[in-house]
């Protein structure tokens, strides 16, 4: 595990403060969404894998949901297949969904499983198809206020947590690719689900305490192209007001953040995954990125996430261990 928190350059996160933050999350499920844009090079992917393993050693239950948009683009480009985006979602024909599944489950997921398992037999890869973990219905896009037919793009209709819960109870790290069978199983169709959408659905269903979204920007900016720094903190309600003005990949990402919070996830953080040890830094006192928290409950004093005094890192919430609860079902 050398090099995880103390980099030779001395620029890494401080191990002690990270461990203090992690201790507050013992027993909690944390979903790590690793976006394709953050998978810049092998070193960053290794750093991500080490962080996931460290979280597990620290007693957390990490679940990885990965993307692979740029990797799919490159593959489709080699095949000479065009698959444009509308509102941040890829228009997906039956031919395209086969290639998306191949790249996500056959390439990106396999690499992440291998990198995590270099540290021990922890990672188990799956798609939403395995044990019927995800079920999807057709998702429509919008452009210029009009509905757009995105083809085989899915919205998660259901998460069956059984397989994930038993893997977590067994100390494994599930690595989930965002492919899901049709909820009605009518014709064996599978849907291409945006990975942020899948991560939020999984986080909500598992009762995750935090969802960390690793992407290729330091956080959410008020306007794009950016002026000034990213937003440090906002509430679900503030995010809901911003949503109609967002563009590109931030549309499904921030809609997913909101869905996760509304499903009960303690907080969501959008992080720059191109920074080494981004996951670990999120638990430190100088945590980077944009933190989105649930709206304060009227009359309940502080919000659900421990706010003041909790430091900048992802904040812990007391409560039942969701893995134990789910495994007991
Ligand atoms: N307001 C915004 N703040 C930050 N990034 C934005 C914003 N609007 C659009 N973007 C774009 O969203 C991208 C991240 O979304 P996406 O490409 O889907 O990433 P990922 O592959 O990590 O899911 C950024 O690279 C940036 O170009
Ligand atoms: C419907 C849709 O757009 N699906 C995405 C799935 C991968 C993904 O979401 O990857 P990132 O997290 O790297 O963006 C796609 O086809 O690119």
Describe, in plain words, how this protein is organized in 3D:
- It is found in: Cytoplasm.
- Its main location: cytoplasm.
- This protein has 329 residues and is α/β, with parallel strands linked by helices.
- The chain has a single domain, classed as Carbamate kinase (3-Layer(aba) Sandwich), CATH 3.40.1160.10.
- It is built from ten helices and 16 strands.
- The strands form four sheets. The chain has an eight-stranded mixed beta sheet with strand order 5-10-2-1-13-15-16-14, with helices on both faces. The chain has a four-stranded mixed beta sheet with strand order 6-9-12-11.
- The radius of gyration is 19 Å and the shape is globular.
- The site of N-acetyl-L-glutamyl 5-phosphate (X2W) has 17 residues, from α3, β4 and α6.
- N-acetyl-L-glutamyl 5-phosphate (X2W) binds next to α3, β4 and α6.
- Estimate what percentage of residues fall within beta strands: 15-25%
Largest sheet geometry: 8 strands, mixed
Structurally, how many domains make up the residues? 1
**Shape designation:** globular
| Structural class estimated from helices and strands | alpha/beta
CATH fold description: Carbamate kinase
Instruction: List unreliable stretches of 5+ residues.
Output: 1-10, 300-312, 317-329
What's the CATH H-level superfamily name? Acetylglutamate kinase-like
* Gyration radius from CA atoms, angstroms: 19 Å
């Amino acid at each position: 595990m050398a090099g995880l928190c103390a980099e030779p350059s001395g620029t890494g996160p401080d191990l002690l403060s990270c461990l203090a933050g992690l201790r507050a999350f013992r027993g909690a499920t944390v979903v790590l969404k690793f976006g394709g844009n953050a998978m810049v090079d092998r070193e960053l992917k290794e750093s991500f894998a080490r962080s996931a393993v460290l979280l597990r050693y620290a007693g957390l239950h990490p679940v990885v949901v990965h993307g692979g948009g740029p990797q799919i683009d490159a593959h489709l480009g080699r095949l000479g297949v065009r698959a444009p985006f509308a509102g941040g979602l890829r228009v997906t024909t039956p031919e395209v969904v086969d290639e998306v599944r191949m790249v996500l489950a056959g390439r990106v997921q396999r690499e992440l499983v291998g990198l995590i398992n270099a540290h021990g037999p922890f990672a188990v890869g799956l798609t939403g198809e395995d044990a019927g973990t995800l079920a999807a219905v057709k998702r429509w896009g919008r452009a210029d206020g009009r509905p757009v037919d995105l083809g085989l793009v899915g919205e998660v209709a259901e998460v069956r947590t059984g397989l994930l819960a038993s893997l977590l109870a067994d100390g494994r790290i599930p690595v989930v690719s965002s492919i899901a069978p049709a909820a009605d199983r009518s014709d064996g169709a599978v849907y291409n689900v945006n990975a942020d959408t899948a991560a939020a659905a999984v986080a909500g269903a598992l009762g995750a305490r935090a969802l960390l979204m690793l992407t290729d920007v330091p956080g959410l900016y008020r306007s794009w192209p950016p002026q000034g720094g990213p937003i440090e903190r906002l509430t679900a309600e503030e995010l809901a007001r911003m949503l109609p003005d967002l563009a590109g990949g931030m549309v499904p990402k921030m809609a997913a953040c909101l869905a996760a919070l509304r499903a009960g996830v303690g907080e969501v953080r959008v992080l720059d995954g191109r920074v080494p040890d981004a996951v670990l830094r999120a638990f430190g006192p100088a945590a980077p990125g944009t933190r989105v928290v649930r709206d304060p409950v009227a009359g309940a004093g502080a919000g659900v996430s421990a706010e003041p005094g909790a430091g900048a890192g992802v904040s812990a919430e007391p409560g039942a261990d969701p893995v134990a609860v789910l495994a007991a079902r």
